[in-house]
Amino acid sequence: MTVRVVQPREVALLRLVAQRIAGPRATSPADAVGRLLAVQGQDYPGALLSVALRTSGAKRGDVEAALDAGEIVRSWPMRSTLHLVPAEDLGWLMALCGPRVLAGAAKRRATLGLDEADAERARELAVEALSGGGRLGRSALLQRLADGGVDTSGQRGYHLLWYAAQTGTVVLGPTAGGGGEQQFVLTDEWIRSPRRLAGDEALHELALRFFTGHGPAAVADLARWSGLTLTAVRTGLASARDRLVSLDVDGVEHWLDPSTADLLAEHRAEAEGLFLLPGFDEFVLGYADRSCAVPPEFAERIVPGGNGMFRATVVVGGRVVGTWRRTGSGARRRITAEPFTEFPDGVAAAIEEAATALAV
Fold first, then answer.
1. Fewest CB within a 10 Å sphere: which of 16, 50, 106, 329?
2. pLDDT digits 0-9 by tens, 198-213
3. Prediction pTM value
4. Local structure of 238: helix, strand or coil
């Protein structure tokens, strides 16, 4: 373990290379997702872009191809939140982080007018509908549940599909017809070679993968990201710390891969440059404390009204300096960026250049 004091801005730059946003990119979409262990997936197009930006030469179609090949899947492994996850890692990760989420499911069902019998009946119907290699989109699968006598109106349908996924029964895998809607499949049929980790071994893997792919990060960041207790997270760190180094950031210990500092030294010029990141990107959402990258006084500009919808961000020098969105359509489709105050010299022109790359 090595401890040295660094400034918050340096933390943000280190995270850019650790996450492979700057510096050497991952060799494949599966490697990009695997390095982070899980990638926020609430916004499906944005999640595809997040992975493509971290992968050498990749386009969003390459990420969908990895989903179609069964290398990556999309489910709710942590915090009842959709993520892209390496297929082989979904089972152990869900077994580790899912029980705390499932513990609150009964209360949610009561609010929706459902009970455990309804949830189990829906799960059984999903198995019937998908057995033997079946693939169904959300609407089609919900219709099969409704045909079987389960009320899927309102938010009931979403909860029932979530429950089937949370119990390891179904997963979102392949896409329909090249770039179409993701299809539900049976987990046991789709994921043929799951890794088997449990207990302290799973906590070790969680801590090592998180701090390697997201570091520098603190224990509180991993607890928030995974939804686990601080006690559980510390147990994982205790067994993984001999493969990590630590930094002191304003008196808080942060952990990271030993190679990250050298990567930043080699690729600092790129890390100091401009990046257009999609909403819900791990660079922003992967941490409990985002202040090293997101100026606290402008945090609400990324999530207006605290509504949970994260806007796409403009990052310069490791700091979020504004937001961006796509406007227009067809040949007139372009990117419109809004600075928090005003963009530094040259940034507006750099945004136009970076926008071309977002056609991936």
1. 329
2. 999 999 999 999 999 9
3. 0.94
4. helix
